[in-house]
Amino acid sequence: MSNTLTVIDMVAADALAAIHEKAKFIGTTDKQFDASYNATTNNSKNGTTLRVRNDNRFYRRQGSRVMDVQDQNESTQTITVATQDGVDIRFNSAELAQSVAAYKSSDFKERYITPAMNTLVSGIDADMLVQFTKDVYNQTGTAGTVVGTSGDTSAIGLARAKLNQGLAPDDERYLQIDSVTMASIVNGNKALFAPNNDVSKAFREGYYGRFGQADWYENERTWSATYISDVTGTTDAASLVTDGGNSVDMHTTVVSPNVGQTFTIAGVYACHPETKQAFAHLQQFVITATSASGACTVSPTIYLGLSDTTKAKRNVCKSDGTALALTDFNSQTLTFGGSASGVYRQNLMYHKNAFAFVTAELPLMRGGDCTRMTKDGISIRVWSDSDIRNDEMLMRFDILYGGKTLRPEWACRITN
């Protein structure tokens, strides 16, 4: 029995190694919450949800020695860990005797484990990247123009600026970028003389390792946003905007925009999270839930700062930095981040802690050989047993996971 367990443990270790190499995106997200679902060390049961505290915000008392005491207005977000994906394989006795290599051989890993794990983690990586990208409202680049065309990489620098304006830490920043955009950037900058390792690597291998304060990952799973056929309109005469709400009525001029479409509202400017001074650009929003009636759910939540509970969280203002009124959202021009019926690749720059990816330790089941292992915050269970009726050996690989965009302001889409 001990030898059998050693073999299944080796299979699990090989599976985790393959996952680690393939997880380009989820491997660069926050996985600190995995301990909450550790079956060995955590005796409490969180169920399928985990609550995470949001960052606290405060406002500054100015020009007065009299205290202006602020209440603690803590809020939370919920991470749901309820998706179980896997890959299942089987061999009959003839295959095991004649063509399938021993479990512990490198041939078995290369022929079966690595391809199976590539399929599993590629799907999860793509699903999470699409889900998280749709949550991000910051966007740079020109829709319809590939970044790097004519040597113009300003969209990369502007994305970096968006993260800075959102107060994202300087370290652990990443960029997921598709190969076509990578090729455009490398080709557009080939005439520049910059004798450093990253640019030299770009000439040799077709990609940059680090640029714009971020580590770059070439990833063909980046999402393409599709815009509806009508992207010209205004907010309703009664826009339904509230202080601390996330609804915007687009009237009947823009019906059922797609989830993930970005837009701005005329006269609604972004402001610094701490000083509340106006930035030079309009606040960008993203559709998170659509409606045929025109009333859409958007992100970020709109904080006008009109009350003590929203003052510290204010994220929009007039161009001069003064507070907006609810009526300032009525009958305002909407400008979308893409043209009618346009399809645009969305590359993504982000800080690690913008997104959380959580895996739970699945239980060890009785019958057959069952083991689980965790590496770099990703837990996998491998379970093998025989089927006496059909003369087969069955093996399944399972991951139970979930993800959540915790700080969208620490991320920025770069459109093509």
Task: Compile the SSE list and pairings.
Elements: H1 2-22, E1 49-53, E2 76-80, E3 83-92, H2 93-98, H3 106-135, E4 139-140, H4 154-165, E5 173-177, H5 179-188, H6 197-205, E6 210-211, E7 214-218, E8 223-226, E9 232-234, E10 245-249, E11 262-271, E12 278-289, E13 295-302, E14 316-317, E15 333-336, E16 343-351, E17 355-360, E18 369-375, E19 378-387, E20 392-405, E21 411-415
Parallel strand pairs: 4-21, 5-7
Antiparallel strand pairs: 1-2, 3-20, 5-16, 6-7, 8-16, 9-15, 10-13, 11-12, 11-14, 11-15, 12-13, 16-21, 17-20, 18-19, 19-20
Provide a brief overview of the structure.
The protein is of the alpha+beta class and 416 residues long.
- Roughly how many Å is the radius of gyration? 25 Å
The unreliable regions are 1-5
Helical coverage, percent range = 10-25%
Secondary-structure element order, as H and E?
HEEEHHEHEHHEEEEEEEEEEEEEEEE
Q: What tags apply to this protein structure?
A:
416 residues, 7-stranded mixed β-sheet, elongated, 21% helix, 6 helices, disordered N terminus, alpha+beta
Give a written overview of the molecule.
It is built from six helices and 21 strands. With 416 residues, it is of the alpha+beta class. Strands 4, 5, 6, 7, 8, 16 and 21 form a seven-stranded mixed β-sheet that branches. Strands 9, 10, 11, 12, 13, 14 and 15 form a seven-stranded antiparallel β-sheet that branches. Helix 1 packs across helix 3.
